[in-house]
Design brief:
Length: 357
């Protein structure tokens, strides 16, 4: 990892009888066993790309600077992983961890709400030029101008879902059945299930400009080259049409996906489709809108009102909460736990104790 390891002292360990531990296990697997009051709260998370994290729940204080420049120091629970397995991604960026911002009762967002620090609202704005910002609370939310849909409480547990959507390309329907969509800021790419993915690929190939030629590129499955190497997506965007997701839950709830939000220019100067076939990595009928598609959009997850919103935004600068202007207009795989449960293996606990000491 890029920074020094965090080494908790023994008094930071959350016992398995604690309500936090019960919430952690109850939120997903419902499998929570506690043989001793002094037993630590173990967990295992497995992700869609077969990566995993084994660890314990700990509690520690954090310095959190608020928008008014004051600092609060809440005690927050989080997972301290001591045995990580890298998934099947070909390019692995060094990361310190995964930040849990779901709607579950133990997520960082929910804990901020419980401590009275912010409302249960989180948003992000990822810039196409690199960087962006993440915010907690509703101070920056442009309620009257954003597109809103109710959160769908589906089979996807605590994931953020705007519900089902119809898919359009260049203004016409691709004729696929409604897609169950989840927004996942932990995934660099967007993933469609087999049927909409194949329909999109067919539409793209059928509408291909004569200036482009399909080419093999080790970076991604479907790529094109031009008469000369592309330097950025802006060089090629005019050759492609926009996608639109039309969400059934909202009133005129359209999410436009222009070419720059689904194409990637590789180091070889080719333009590649940044939407992948999720069925090939076990996502089945789940359709994931990842970071590539959410660039230069402020995306808001409002758990207070049970709604998700988005609006085009210049994400390379943080707006002032009093004068919000401009809202008119290494790879991570999907961060989806497939299981989380208590560890009955004493060897794991011994490893943790020896590492800690």
């Amino acid at each position: 990892v890029p920074h020094p390891l965090y080494r908790p002292t023994k008094n930071k360990l959350v016992p398995c009888v604690d309500q936090l531990c019960t919430s952690l296990h109850g939120g997903l697997s419902k499998n929570h066993k506690c043989d001793s009051p002094k037993q630590q709260c173990d967990y295992e998370v497995k992700y869609a790309d077969q990566g995993s994290s084994l660890g314990v729940l700990v509690n520690d204080s954090f310095a959190v600077r608020l928008a008014n420049a004051s600092v609060v120091r809440p005690s927050l629970a989080f997972g301290c992983g001591y045995d990580q397995e890298v998934g099947s991604s070909t390019e692995v960026a060094p990361t310190d961890g995964v930040l849990g911002l779901g709607s579950g009762s133990i997520s960082l967002l929910s804990q901020f709400k419980q401590h009275g620090i912010t409302k249960n609202v989180v948003g992000h704005c990822l810039s196409m030029r690199g960087g962006g910002f993440l915010f907690f609370g509703d101070n920056l939310v442009p309620y009257s101008r954003a597109t809103w849909v109710p959160m769908a409480r589906s089979a996807f547990r605590n994931y953020y879902s705007p519900g089902s959507a119809s898919l359009y390309f260049g203004g016409r329907s691709l004729g696929v059945r409604p897609m169950e969509v989840v927004l996942d800021s932990g995934s660099s790419f967007t993933y469609f299930s087999a049927q909409p993915y194949q329909a999109l690929v067919t539409a793209l190939k059928g509408d291909l400009s004569k200036t482009l030629k399909e080419v093999s590129d080790p970076s991604l499955p479907l790529c094109w080259k031009g008469k000369k190497p592309f330097k950025s997506v802006l060089d090629v965007k005019k050759e492609f049409k926009s996608l639109v997701l039309n969400f059934a839950n909202g009133k005129k709830a359209l999410m436009e996906i222009p070419p720059e939000n689904y194409l990637i220019v590789t180091k070889y100067g080719n333009a590649c489709l940044g939407i992948l076939n999720g069925s090939e990595i076990g996502l089945k009928d789940l359709n994931i809108v990842g970071d590539i598609t959410m660039q230069d959009q402020m995306v808001i997850y409002d758990n207070e009102r049970g709604q998700i919103g988005w609006i085009r935004a210049p994400c390379d600068r943080i707006p002032n909460e009093n004068t919000i202007h401009g809202f008119e207009e290494g790879y991570c795989w999907p961060q989806f736990p497939s299981s989380i449960f208590g560890i009955q293996n004493e060897e794991c606990a011994v490893n943790y104790r020896s590492n800690k000491e």
